[in-house]
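FAQ
Q: What does a multi-component entry look like?
A: The components come first, one per line:
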Amino acid sequence: MSGDGDFLALLPKTAFAAPGRGDPSHPALEATTVFAFHYADGVIVAGDHRATAGNLVFSDRTEKILELDRHSLMAIAGSPSIALEMARTLQTAFDYYRRSQLQPMSLAAKMRALSRLLHDNLPATLQGFGTVAPIFAGLDPATGRPSIFFYDPLGAQFEGVAYAGSGSGSGSIKSVLHYLEQWGQPKPAQMTLAQAVVLANRLLMTAAEFDTATGGVDPLRGDFATVKLLDAAGVRTLAPAEQARLWGAAP
Amino acid sequence: MTTDEPYRWLDAIANRREYIRDQLKGATPVFAVSRPEGVLLLGVGTGQSKVFEVYDRLALGALGHPVDIEKIRQTVIEAAHREGFTRAPEDVTLRRLLNFSLGPALKSGFEQIFSAPLMVECVFAEVGAAPADDVLARVAFDGTYRFESGLAVVHTAAAAEAAAASWLRDQLAGAASVGEVARLALAAWRSLTAGAEFTAPDRAAALAAAPAVEGKVVEAALLERGPGRVCYRPLGAADLA
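Then the predicted structure of the entire assembly, as tokens:
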């Protein structure tokens, strides 16, 4: 007993101690499928609710689309502990910058901040238990235009001109989005909000068909994806009740 | 001068207090008002010079030397973000920041008689779940502070400040909107800046006047009451109309 009140120092002695590296009986926890695409009014960012540890469903109530500030979002795939800490760090960094400098951080600086955190996470990535591959959606205050970016686990950033996806189920989703972008009527970028919300939920249901790590979405039972929107007015969360209304109203 | 003799130290402190009050004489007042919609902060300056966001539910209104306001602002913003990151945003409270961070720093700065004093008077506001939970703290340049209920006026002359607060408190009881509160506060601002003493403005004229001051910027913000994480919202002319 150290007596200094430091709870974190107690963690290694509890059942929540971190699993040993490379121990197959303790597979690392992973948050799975997230994606973003442009629709007519802005960007929709969506994800399922599932976190897995190997073949186990660890949670079906995981929030993976995180609002960093009024003009930026991060969707996480990979190690939740590190990804959530990255999101918390960015949230504080953006707020601190805005409040102390009396101006919002530029979109380019926000993107670079995430890139730096990913790069700093290189040791955990290389050891195989702390990989994070996020999607970032941000608004350029000068143009009012939202953009989508995706990252590799080492911090390289790429713009998803039409869409981006990450996590184990994102292969199916990106395939469908590519098809719709090429031959869809309407294309995702032309869709209304209702159409985009229906598409987002159906994409996750499609991914879940082929990927056991994607799940927790079943609109017919009232279980909707986590959906956040980014447009010129900023970030907005679509509650399940609103998604249900749009689901019913969509053609 | 040596200060190892108690009466010389007291003399130096008294001189310092007098000097700061003299230097602050030209500064213009700021106001904080607790409303059902949230906490309104208002001052008149050059834009981003009087009213500031501090943390999720905290804001600052200040008068004094701009550089010193900046020092106070940066100090408290840094302390709030460190605490919010280390523990949780809910642990960042005005009472804790004043007790353990800003109050001691201001007092220590004031008593360092061989260094330049901080010439700042300010009000900090924390919005709560209901108006009764709001916290308004009137902070003086020497680190002393007192918590106010519903309204805080910050001015450089104590008697005029108290008179303005008394008048404003009476008027605010019937104010229907944030815009009306802003007009009444601006009427008090005009009276406080017109002379050494506060003369009660006419309520009807105050409410009829435009929420503007020629050649200056009305700086106003609302700490909005509600479930949102970031409560600070700057108010423009349209919000005060």
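Q: Is there any commentary attached?
A: Sometimes. For this entry: The interface with chain A takes residues 48, 52-56, 73-74, 77-78, 81, 84-85, 230 of chain B (CB under 8 Å).
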